[in-house]
Specification:
The chain is mainly β. It folds into two domains: 44-146, Sandwich (Immunoglobulin-like); 151-406, no CATH class. 12% of the residues lie in helices and 34% in strands. It has three helices and 27 strands. The longest helix has 39 residues, at 2-40. It is globular, with a radius of gyration of 28 Å.
Length: 417
């Protein structure tokens, strides 16, 4: 009897063992199937370690806003860094990404970190990088920044337009500068300049500016200045000035383009390049900026692929250093130290052109891009908030976050026409 009971028990145990083994094999098969499916949508954990500038009282950039942008899908994920300055993106698809970080410091926090009480925005930007395998450690970003100015670049119409016959027309470009402060700002003496270097892979041999590594300055080609003795040209809070390439009604003037989207006959200023051949149109109704230095064509043409622009102030602009571009025999640029810059803007050829940035990340951590050239598209700064009737525009020193691309320009306006 005992042996019979033992044999029955062994048979029962064997059956239970077989059932368990079958269940385990089934589960393993399901996991394998899940694994096969998951491999098609494999994702990675991506960490970004954000640190403050070396001269600051601490290292970790707690509260930094980190943006991870896919250049292929034009999708951005945002994570706020923890107390140790670490931002974790838990599910990142393989691809090419731009990593940008920013941190706005209020006066009290800036005082604790730098010894100076002044609001400050810090930025960092990494050009597009391929993330195709799980990173072995965090990507490092060290923030840098400069003082925010009262004047900001509100709108830049650079893409230019097509004529009714399909030709190209660029004389209707303009830049609008806005007073984002609570008090009147005088435009007298303000300088505007275009950064040297291509906006992207324009042709197979195009390479980024060789001056990129000198991040303490912007290297510019041409410089124009608003004249005045200091208090002749006030800009009230929430108001702006328009600087035209040619100050005419481009839609109706005989020298214009009937298909142009803008009337710039009421612009505040125009850039005029006096030449013996008289190729640059001089509008009699719009005053000229002072030409400080002009390097380029017959007019102050912003690159239709995307310009880098700075507005700045200098007590002695003539004393700024002139620099020969490395690798050239006669291409000169002017060095504008970052501390002179009031505001900056950058547009590039497309979303994959981050390697061609000309403006240091301390001044502008991002860029915008139009859908093409001669599309009549414009870049306009976004509204952060409205106080009474005064619009306060976004100013995080990051064109990617601060600007939007419009189908048509809106000089002095905000609503699309």
């Amino acid at each position: 009897m005992l042996s019979l009971i033992i044999r029955r028990s062994l048979r029962a145990d064997s059956a239970r063992l077989r059932a368990r083994l079958l269940l385990a094999m089934t589960a393993a098969g399901l996991l394998s199937a899940c694994g096969d499916g998951a491999s098609e949508v494999q994702t990675f954990v991506v960490d970004v370690q954000v640190t403050l500038p070396e001269t600051f009282a601490q290292s970790a950039a707690a509260g930094a806003r980190v943006l991870l942008t896919s250049t292929e899908r034009n999708v951005t994920d945002t994570v706020v860094a923890d107390a140790q300055g670490l931002a974790r993106f838990p599910r990142v698809l393989p691809g090419s990404y731009i990593i940008a970080s920013s941190l706005a410091l209020d006066p009290d926090r800036a005082l604790a970190l730098t010894g100076q009480r002044a609001a400050l925005t810090l930025n960092a930007l990494d050009p597009a990088r391929a993330i195709v395998t799980a990173p072995t450690g965090p990507f490092a970003q060290r923030l840098s920044g400069s003082r925010l100015g009262d004047l900001v670049i509100k709108e830049v119409y650079y893409s230019a337009s097509r004529t009714p016959s399909g030709g190209t027309y660029f004389s209707d470009q303009f830049v609008e500068i806005y007073n984002n402060a609570t008090d009147t700002v005088y435009a007298d003496g303000l300088l505007i300049a275009d950064a040297f270097g291509p906006a992207g892979q324009i042709n197979p041999t195009t390479v980024p500016t060789p001056l990129q590594s000198q991040t303490g300055s912007v290297f510019v080609s041409s410089i124009y200045q608003i004249p005045g003795t200091g208090r002749q040209h006030p800009i009230a809070p929430g108001r702006s000035i328009v600087i035209a390439q040619d100050g005419i009604d481009h839609r109706n003037d005989p020298n214009g383009n009937p298909a142009s989207p803008v009337n710039l006959a009421s612009a505040d200023w125009e850039t005029f390049n006096l030449r013996p051949d008289g190729r640059d149109l001089d509008s009699p109704s719009v005053p000229n900026l002072t030409r400080v230095v002009h390097r380029g064509g017959f007019d102050w043409l912003m690159p239709v692929f995307g310009p880098g622009l700075v507005i700045f102030r200098s007590a002695n602009v003539a004393a700024l250093d002139s620099t020969l571009v490395p690798g050239t025999t006669g291409t000169w640029v002017t060095r504008v130290p970052n501390e002179l810059v009031v505001d900056a803007f950058e547009a590039l050829q497309n979303g994959n052109s981050a390697a061609y940035k000309r403006i240091p990340a301390a001044l502008d951590a991002g860029f915008v891009f139009a859908t093409g050239t001669y599309t009549s598209e414009s870049a306009r700064r976004r509204i952060a908030t409205t106080i009474g009737t005064r619009r306060v525009l976004r100013d995080s020193n990051n064109s990617s976050a601060d600007f939007e691309i419009l189908a048509r320009p809106t000089p002095r306006g905000f609503a699309a026409p």
